[in-house]
Amino acid sequence: MPALPRSFIDRRRFLTLLAAAVPTVALVRRAHAAALEHLESDPGTLDALADAVLPSELGRAGIARVAADFRAWGAGYRENAELVHGYGTSRLRFTGPTPLTRWTTQLDALDAAARSAHDRAFRDLSRDDRESLVRAALAKERLDRMPAVGAANHVALALLAHFYDSADAADLCYTAKIGKSTCRPLAASPHAPERKLRVLER
Amino acid sequence: MNLARRVRAVESDVCIVGSGITAAMVAARLARTTSASIVVVEAGDDTVPLAQRPAARDRFLRYGENPWGVDHIDGYEIDGPLQSRSMQVGGLAMHWGGVTPRFSPEDFRQHTLYGVGTDWPISYDDLEPFYEEAERVLGVAGEQGPAEMDPRRAPFPLPALPLTYNLELLQQWAAKAGIAMWSQPSAKNSVPYDGRPQCCRNDTCTPICPIGAKYSPDFTWNALRRSNRVRLLPRTLVRHLALDPSGKTVALAVALDRDHPDTPLELHAKTFVVAAGYTWSSHLLLLSAQSGAPNGVANRSGLVGKYLAGHRNVQAFVDLPIRLYPGMSDQHSLVTKQFMRHKAGSPFIRHDLRVWESASGKGPRLADDSGGLMLGDAILADWRKRTQTGAARVRAYYDVVPDRASELTLDPSRKNAWGDPLPRLAFRDAPESAALRGKTEDSVRALFADMARVGNGKVTRTSVDGFQDHPSGGCRMGDDASTSVVDSHGRTHDHENLFVVGAPTSVSGGCANATLTFCALSLRAAREMERGLPSAGPRKS
Predict the structure, then answer these.
(1) Cβ(B103)–Cβ(B517) under 8 Å?
(2) Beta-carbon pairs below 8 A across chains A and B
(3) Cβ separation of B366 and A82 shorter than 8 Å?
(4) Is residue A192 one of the residues assigned to a domain?
C-alpha cells in the first residue's frame, strides 16, 4: 500500500475523532466547518464521484454544476433547525447533526481504497474503476428509493438524492421544461411542457 | 413602600383573542362598518414579512426547514392530535393550502334529511351572503360546478385557476368514469387582486407562498395596522376571562405579555371575541373557571370542548396509461361534489372527491426490480422507462358525525411555562358514524377501483388517514342553550358580550375543506356584533 500524505492522515483522523466525540455545540460547529473546508479546498474526489454516479447526459459542465451545488448545500446546512411542522401533532422536529463529517470521511475512504487497489487517487481512476469502488462502498446499504439528502448514509447516495430531487433532473427525465417548484406563467398551464433537447456534450 | 405590581390596562370597544383567518375576517369587517376601537391579541410572534419569504421557501425546499421562523411557544406538546403547532400572527392560515370549497346545503340539515347527527341552527341560504363576502375578501378563484351539485347565487370573484395539462387529462379520465370534476376553488390569485400578484405556480402554497398570490391573514393585518384601525398585540397570551359580578358579561381578559411577564396585563372591552381556533378557544373558556362559572366561562351546558368535529379521508394512487408531467402543479386539484348527494334508502355515506397529478411510484430509484444497485445512466434510463405512464392521487374526505365525547379537556399532567394546564384532545365518532365507518371506506375504495378500471389503470396504494382533518367544534352553535354553547351568530348563550367565532362553532365537519365556512360564519357573527357598536359614519378627509 502506498504511503498516504501526512496531511491526509491528519485531516482524516481529526474528522473521525471529531465525529465520534461528544457533540457539544462548539465541537460540532468546528467539525462542520472543518468538513466544509475539506470539501471546498479539495473538491477533486467529490467531482470524480459525481462523474461516476450521475448520468452522462448532463455533460461535464452539468456534472460539475451538480457537484458545486451539492457543496453549496453542505455549506448551507444548519444543525438543530426547526423542520416544517407536521399536521395532526404537536411534536416539533429539528435537523440532525451535520452529515458533512461522515461524508468527507467517506470521500477520504474512497480515495484510500483507490490508492490501495490501483495505486492512484480516486480522481485519477477511470469511470468504470471509480464506479466499482462506489459499488463496493455501498455493498452493505439497503437500497431502494432515494433517501433524503441529509439522511443519506453515504456521500454517493446523498449526491444522487440531491440531484434527483431537483427540477433539472425531472426535466432531464421527461425531456421537457416542467420547471417544478419554479415561478411559471399560469397561462402556460394547459399546455404540455415544451420539449427540452438532451445535452449531448461530454 | 408599595409592593403591589402595577397593572397595565388596554381599553377598547372590541377585544379579539387570536389573529388567525377568522379573527382577520371579524376585524376587517368591524373596521369597515363601525368606528369601534379594536384590539387584537396574539400569543405568538409576528410573522415572517413577505420580502423574506422567497429565502425562507428556498431553505424549506433545500433542507425541509420551517419557513415561518419562531411560530410556536415552547412547552406546548399536548396529548392528542393537534392540527398544527403554529402560533403566530395570521395563525395556521399562514401555511394553509388556500383551498376554499363551500359546504353543501345538506351539511346544515343532516338530521332532518338523513336522521344522523345534529342540524345546524342556520341553513346554507342563511350563510350564502357571507360565503360570497368571504370569497371576495380572500379573493377566491373558481368555476361553478353543475348547479344541482354546486348551487351559488353569484359567480366567483376571480376566474378559476386554469387546469394544467395534467389535470385536463385527468378530468377526461374522470368523465369516462361518469364523474364531473372541475377546478378546485382556491384563495389564490388567478389574476392580480387586492394588491397581490397573480399566482405563478411556485407550487409550495403549503407551507409557503413566496409571492403573496395566496391569501393569508397577514395581508389583512398589515392593511388594518397601516390605517390604525386595529391595535395588534403579538406575544400576548390571554389566560383568563373574568366575569362581572352578575356573571352575565365578561369584564376583562387577563393576559400575559411574554416580553414583560412580571407586569400584569388586563384587557378591558365592551365586546370580547374568542377567535382562537378549535383548540385554544375552548381551552381559554375552560381555563376561565371562576366563582359563578365553576366549569369555565360560557359552559353552563357543560358542552365547551365537546363535539369536536372533522373528517377522515381515504386516499389512493392510481397508475394510468397516459403520459403526465408531474411537477406542473401538484397542489392544485380537480374536485367534485357528486358524492355529497346521499341517496335515500341507502346507508348514510357522503364524501367529496379530489384528483391531483402525482409522482407516486414514478420517482427515481436506486435499485432495479431485482434489487441490484443502479448508478450513472442506469438510474435515468430506469426512471424514463417508468414515467412513460402517469399516476393520479385520488382522495375522498367523508363525513364523521362527532360524539359528545369527542372532546377537549384540561390536562392536569401537562402545564405551560406559566402553570396553566394544557389541553388534551380526543376525537370520537358518534355511534352511527362508527357503525358505518367500514362501509364508507369500502365504498370509497370501490369507487377508486372503478375509476382505475375505466382508465385501464390500477390502484397501487390505498390508505386511510386516522387523523380528522380540518378540525372544528368545541363551542358548537344551536338555538337551545342546553345543547349548545353559542347561538347561530356565535354569541355565547351565557354571556351577552362574549362571542366565539369560526371553527369552534361548527356543528359538524362536513366532507370538504372547511376554512371558507369558518370565515363565512365569522363574518355572520361580525354582522351581529355591529348592532352594538358605533357605525362607521362618513369618513373624515
Answers:
(1) yes
(2) 163
(3) no
(4) no
